[in-house]
Structure formats: C-alpha cells, structure tokens
Amino acid sequence: MPEHSLDASIPGWRGNAPLAATLCKDRVHTCSAQARRLGVRPGLRLGTTLALAPGIVLADDDPGARDAFLRRIALGLQQYTPNIAIRGEHALVLDVGASLALFHGPRALWRAFLCSANLLAPGFSAGMAPTSEGALLLALREPPGRRRALCLETLLRLLDALPVGVLPAARPYLDWLEGIGCITLAQLRKLPRKGLRQRAGPELPDSLDAAYGRLQTHHAWLETPDLFSLRIDTDRLEHLHAIQAAATQLVDQLCGWLRARNAAAQALEFRFFHEKGRNAAPPTVLAIELAHPRWHSGEFKDLLIEHLRRMPPMPSIIGLALTIPRLGTRPSPEAGLFPELNPAHTAEQQLLDLLCARLGAGQVRRAHPLAHHLPEKANAWVPVTTQNTEAPHPASVFASDARPFWLLTAIPLNTHNDRPVYKGAALRLLRGPERLASDWWSDSGHEQRDYFVAQDAHAVRYWVYRRHDPSGGRWFLHGLYG
C-alpha cells in the first residue's frame, strides 16, 4: 500500500486532492501518482516540490497515524486469517495457509481478498506465493503482471525474471550490481554468496533466500483487541452513498475482528460525528438490533443500507464510529454433508432483520417460552431481538402428539353422562388423564386440571380438560389438533 500514508494524513485525498504528498523534515515522504507524473519523488525538498507542482496538497507524515491506519486495514482483513503482520512501512503479510479449505481454494480466496482490500485500501497491490518474501516481490513488480504463484516452481520462474531493483535489500547497491552486469534476480542468485555477504552484508542474501524458499522467515503476528470500538475521520459527508461507503469500511473491519475471535454480533451502534462550531450538533446514534447473531459482511451491509435510508436528514458528517454493545454466540456448524449451506434458515433471519428495520424492533415479536406448567402461561410474546434469559419450559414426558397444534382460550363445555359435549355431540376420551397442577404455593390462582385427548364422530381430535375445584369438575376445550 504505497499511498496509505496519504490516506492516514489527508483523508479523502483521492477524490478532493489527487495531487498530494506527505512531508518528513521538509522532504517528500510519499506522493500520489499524479504528483509523480509531474516529477515529484520521495526525498525531494519542499521548495523543489512546490516548483514542480504548485497546487499540491501537503501534510506532515504522522508515523502514529500511519501505523494505526495499517492496523485498521489488518483488522478488516482478519476475516481471511488471524495471522497478519506489518512488513515495513507500507506492507502487510497474511498467512492464509490454514484458510484455503475454508474459502474453497486459493483462487476463490484470492478473489474475495481483492474485493475486501479494494474497499479498505484503494490503490494497493498484492501478491500470493508459497513464501511471504516472494509474495511481496510479486506485489512490487512494475509494470503489473502475474502476481500469483501457487507452487514453488512457478514462484522461482516468476522471480528469476524480475529486475534486481524490486528487492528492497538490493536497492542501496543498485549502481554496483548494474556495474557488474547483475540485472535480474536470476543473475543475483548466481553471484558467489561469500563475496555477496562481504560486500552487502547478510541482509541481501538472506532476503533473497527467504523469497526463494531457502530460508524460513518469522513474523510477529498482530494481536486481536479484546473489544471492538473503531472510529474513522472523513471529509464532509452529506450524501447517502458517501456515508454508506464510510460505514462499510467499519463493517469490513468488524467482520475481520469477529472472524478472528470466532464471535458474532447481536447489535451494532454507529455514531455519526458532525462539524463543530457555532452550529455544532451532538453525534447522531444509529442502533441496529439483530434478530439473530451475525458475522458476515454482506448481511450487515444490506441491513445498514435499509437503516440509513430510513434515518432523518443529518448535518454534515466528519467522522464515524462503530461499537458492539452486545456480542452473540456463533452457532456451531450443523452436522451434515453441507454444513455451511442452510439457505432457508439464512433467509428467515434476513427477513426478520429487514422487518425490524422497516417496522421497528418492537413491532416484530416471537414466542418466548416460560417456565410454567399451565399452557396459557407457558409463553409470552416478546420483540424478536430480545435475548432468552429465562429457563425453558419443562419438557413433557408425553409424546409430541400429546400437545395440540392450536391452543385456544378455554371454552366451557356442557356434559352428558359425565362426557364433554361440543357442538351438540358427545366427545369420546382417547387418552388421559394428564394432571397439571400449578400455583398451589400461592394464596390465589391455584389450578388443578386433568387433560384428555378427545375425538368426535368425524375423527376430529380435541384437547379438553376437567377442572378440580369446589364447584365441581367442569369441562373446557383448550386446543385443536391438526
């Protein structure tokens, strides 16, 4: 990412100021492609830079902001692997060996990675190889060519054709190497190692061996933070598409953090910061409650778009922040031939979240079982985003068909010869009794019932019960079977 210093120091420079550069001690540290076309180069003095590009936008290089920017990008890419390391000032190394099966092979992983990286760090270049140094050299090759080698033999062939200047450790010795006719890495490999070490030190031959797989390299992997809370500063954002693009960057980094921790999000909270001054406004908060825990970026983005469209107009935005008020548990894969494929379940979750976004979380409700023996008190209707906090209903010792499909409000029944009568016909008792007694410990509300499965002359089955109380055993209809 050769231009990420500009992204860290001059937010939004790609659209507003394509002619830009950062300075370190009055010398150019990083410059844009348009500035390079005018002759600006890293190391150039400030006066010469202004003479070559009078309208250039300049900012001091901030190593802290640059490092924080790299770490934010790494956080977003952790959805592909938790093993990410910073390589120098401008590069990241990802060890994706353990993720190949998860993403169905290196080619599918490569395509998905390019899409994510393009959102997080526009203007990047990437390489894929069996060695990290080899992947770095493929990413640095100019002009861009083939940058992916899936086996060591292919990597050796591609590296041999690269110019020696692509190797960072060889750049201080380019004049000497060109003077002895060493132009490509293949020619550099043929030089005597003893003489090369005496002339250039151990760094040059070691980096060459690491690229070709002859020397193992070790990286200090970045640690995943325990809590996710991220803020980015932007130029003034007023249109929905610009706000959505900035929020999408935060979502991508959230998904990387969730995958690295094998977690899921139950709720999201966005804060939109507005301009300060005379007409300063407090941050606008967007809280998104999810019906089920989620961890895929596509699901978050679709839901985010729906919520942003329904928000009232906001003042100009200069920054966004994303936090996770509540984490959820990622469900374990179901045992089966294709455990990752469950389109019906996924479609149901997406529909519930979409209804919550359009109607409000309190308007979409689900059945919530309660620990009570009486059927009419064993359930409550709660918002679909509410967590299960109470004990589940005690399991019945009867077969599953002992409970009716449709529970009714208790309907009093007449009796004939001590048999319940419904719609003028006496019911025949098939199964029972099942005694349910509850609230005997309280002064009021004590219920004692004997439930039966009954059937009429047309083979329609009913769930009836007889109440035990001082007034006598009255019959009630409480459910219908399917």
Reading side by side through the largest sheet, how are the strands ordered?
14-13-12-18-17-16-15
Query: What is the arithmetic mean of pLDDT?
Result: 84
Radius of gyration: 34 Å
The poorly predicted ranges are none
Share of residues in helices: 25-40%
Structure keywords:
482 residues, alpha+beta, 4-stranded antiparallel sheet, elongated
Task: Write a concise synopsis of the structure shown.
With 482 residues, the protein is of the alpha+beta class. The protein has helices at 4-9, 13-16, 33-37, 46-52, 63-77, 106-120, 132-140, 152-160, 174-179, 185-189, 193-200, 203-211, 240-261, 297-309, 343-359, and strands at residues 20-23, 28-31, 57-60, 84-87, 91-94, 229-237, 264-274, 284-294, 317-328, 365-369, 379-383, 406-416, 419-422, 425-426, 428-438, 447-455, 461-467, 475-480. Strands 14-13-12-18-17-16-15 form a seven-stranded antiparallel β-sheet, with no helix packed on it. Strands 6-9-7-8 form a four-stranded antiparallel β-sheet, with helices on one face. The chain has a three-stranded mixed β-sheet with strand order 2-1-3.
Could you characterize the architecture of this molecule?
The protein is 31% helix and 26% strand. The protein is an alpha+beta fold. The strands form five sheets. The chain has a seven-stranded antiparallel sheet, with no helix packed on it. Strand 12 (406-416) and strand 13 form a beta hairpin.
